[in-house]
């Protein structure tokens, strides 16, 4: 499994997305991949999983099928909760 955060760089959510990713790495030693929502791959993922608001955290299987998603920033999981999904 992998964990990806879809966000827009240089937007109002840029700082909070990067801080969350840094804190996650510091707490778990695991990586949270940050993906530009407007990149071709980000747009594909958003379209496939009907993600219309960002930033959003997605836990995905290796085939990119969705396991879990967190779409509201105030409801993002703790690092230990998210760690379960990250390799």
Describe this structure in words.
- By secondary structure, this protein is α+β, with helices and mostly antiparallel strands.
- The protein has a single domain, classed as Glutaredoxin, CATH 3.40.30.
- It is 33% helix and 23% strand.
- It is built from three helices and four strands; from the N terminus they run βαβαββα.
- The chain has helices at 14-28, 40-48, 79-83, and strands at 2-7, 33-36, 56-60, 66-70.
- The chain has a four-stranded mixed β-sheet, with helices on both faces.
- β3 (56-60) and β4 (66-70) form a beta hairpin.
- The longest helix is centred in the first third of the chain and has 15 residues, at 14-28.
- The mean pLDDT is 93.
Tell me what portion of residues adopts beta-strand conformation.
15-25%
Total helices: the number is 3
CATH superfamily: Glutaredoxin
Strand order of the largest sheet: 2-1-3-4
Report the CATH architecture. 3-Layer(aba) Sandwich
Structural class: alpha+beta
Total beta-strand segments: 4
Query: Span between N and C termini?
Result: 6 Å
Secondary-structure element order, N to C: EHEHEEH
CATH topology, by name, is Glutaredoxin
| Residues in helix, % | 25-40%
What is the rounded Rg?
12 Å
CATH class identity: Alpha Beta
Major sheet size, sense and barrel closure: 4 strands, mixed
Uncertain segments are none
Number of domains: 1
Q: Please, what is the average pLDDT?
A: 93
Overall spatial form: globular
